[in-house]
């Protein structure tokens, strides 16, 4: 599994060759620095650790400062480990090397995008789970249109089961979207144009996997 770390710039749309208007997301993908290479002998598995985004040294924990100095780079904001990096990148992912998007992806590739969805705060069951509400406003139900309804039983089990869908905090979760197509690559600006939407707010970190 090869991939790269990026930042979501925003959404736009382009026209395809057959005249369809395609919604797409612009991502600043890399450049990333290889800050650690793991192998079966020393770590029990193969993996490549990539780092992205500049970070002030005064805001970086001292162990991480040493970790980045060992790779010969400045402190970074985001660190992600990619297991079993594809064999065709052998020699390109040595410690301290820079990984760019156009060396990993080509136009027409299908990729997976991982991001943190937008937080929406404490929400009721209609918005959080898509409940329809109690129903009509007749029979005295003047204030229960968006309520959850019954949530438990009677004398047995005398409790509410765990996992019951109720009101609560919504969003802010790790979300993975599969099979997005790389429509365009702008290597001089490290930009990728990806079909569809990617979870997260503008300028949030995203992980692109191939």
UniProtKB/TrEMBL annotation:
Annotated SUPFAM superfamilies: Translation proteins
GO annotation (BP), single: translation
Classification lineage: Bacteria, Pseudomonadati, Bacteroidota, Cytophagia, Cytophagales
Organism: Cyclobacterium qasimii
Domain of life: Bacteria
Quaternary assembly: Part of the 50S ribosomal subunit. Forms a cluster with proteins L14 and L19.
UniProt GO MF annotations: rRNA binding; structural constituent of ribosome
Official protein name in the record: Large ribosomal subunit protein uL3
UniProt similarity note: Belongs to the universal ribosomal protein uL3 family.
Gene that specifies this protein: rplC
Keyword Magnesium: no
Keyword ATP-binding: no
Stated role: One of the primary rRNA binding proteins, it binds directly near the 3'-end of the 23S rRNA, where it nucleates assembly of the 50S subunit.
Alphabetized Gene3D superfamilies for the sequence: 3.30.160.810, Translation factors
InterPro entries from the UniProt entry: Ribosomal_uL3, Ribosomal_uL3_bac/org-type, Ribosomal_uL3_CS, Transl_B-barrel_sf
UniProt entry keywords in alphabetical sequence: Ribonucleoprotein, Ribosomal protein, RNA-binding, rRNA-binding
GO cellular component terms given for this protein: cytosolic large ribosomal subunit
């Amino acid at each position: 599994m090869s991939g790269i770390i990026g930042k979501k710039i925003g959404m736009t749309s382009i026209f395809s060759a057959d005249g369809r208007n395609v919604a797409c997301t612009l991502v600043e993908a890399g450049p990333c620095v290889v800050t650690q290479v793991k192998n079966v002998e020393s770590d029990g598995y193969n993996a490549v650790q990539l780092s992205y985004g500049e970070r002030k040294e005064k805001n970086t924990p001292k162990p991480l400062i040493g970790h980045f100095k060992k790779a010969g780079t400045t402190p970074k904001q985001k660190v992600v480990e990619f297991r079993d990096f594809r064999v065709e990148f052998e020699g390109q992912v040595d410690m301290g090397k820079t990984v760019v998007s156009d060396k990993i992806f080509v136009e027409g590739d299908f990729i997976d995008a991982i991001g943190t969805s937008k937080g929406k705060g404490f929400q009721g069951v209609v918005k959080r789970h898509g409940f329809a509400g109690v129903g009509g406003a007749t029979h005295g139900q003047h204030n229960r249109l968006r309520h959850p309804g019954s949530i438990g039983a009677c004398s047995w089990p005398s409790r509410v089961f765990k996992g019951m869908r109720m009101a609560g905090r919504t969003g802010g979760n790790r979300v993975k979207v599969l099979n997005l197509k790389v429509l365009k690559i702008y290597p001089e600006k490290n930009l990728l144009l990806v079909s569809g939407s990617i979870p997260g707010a503008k300028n949030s970190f995203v992980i692109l996997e191939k």
